[in-house]
Amino acid sequence: MRQHILVVEDEKHLGVGIKYNLEAEGFRVTLVEDGPTALRLFNHSRDSIELIVLDLMLPGMSGYAVCESIREGGSNVPVLMLSARTLAEDRSRGFDVGANQYLAKPFELVELISRVKNLLSSARVAEPTAEPTRTVAVKQTQFGEMEVDFETHEVIKEGQPFRMTPKELRLLKYFVENPNRVISRQELLREVWEMSGNLQTRAVDQFIARLRKAIERNPAAPIHLLTIRDAGYRFLPTAAQERTAEE
């Protein structure tokens, strides 16, 4: 059975071109031109859609909002976000709402096809090869100046409400459930992003930096989320008295 890709692009000539070229590669492609239609179609056919190519600027509902709604609905379908915006904050916001990759316009179709194949391949091999490492599911946690309820997404920092994105909370939850041990980038890709650990992406490092800004008093000198050089990261619920091998 051909893999089903949903393409959401309001520039008709570009959307038709993407659809034509992906179909030439053997994929089944559905093309829609606005955000609300894309979300309705996905919710109706989510079991058959294996990847979404999602433009950022769409009529009725932005690509950010579409992607965020899909993630809040519990789906981990790979999302390749397209945009003419190239600023770092635009890419960062795309990752915040759950995009897997971000491709700036204009782009070469050969690169888009390569990224599509990479994401689909990663999704197929995303299951961990080792026994699950997570031990006890955690619903709430308190450390340092943070109080976090993972079920309600309520976060208190220094006694005040504090906003964290769903992906930041999921990453923090994994660290909280696996305290005091070194966790590799590859493990985080598998367990938090549900992607192949072999995928080359900066998403992990970018989110570690964002998470440190959220939970550390001084992100440049972390005492809870430490970097272990050439190995990964280690979360200490109790502040580290001595930090070794940090960035």
Please characterize this protein's 3D structure.
- By secondary structure, the chain is of the alpha/beta class.
- It has 2 domains: 4-124, Rossmann fold (3-Layer(aba) Sandwich), CATH 3.40.50; 140-235, Arc Repressor Mutant, subunit A (Orthogonal Bundle), CATH 1.10.10.
- 37% of the residues lie in helices and 20% in strands.
- The protein has 8 helices and 12 strands.
- The protein has helices at 12-24, 35-45, 63-72, 88-96, 109-124, 166-177, 185-191, 203-215, and strands at 4-8, 28-32, 49-55, 79-83, 101-104, 140-143, 146-149, 154-157, 160-161, 182-183, 225-228, 232-235.
- The strands form 3 sheets. A 5-stranded parallel sheet has the order 2-1-3-4-5, sandwiched between helices.
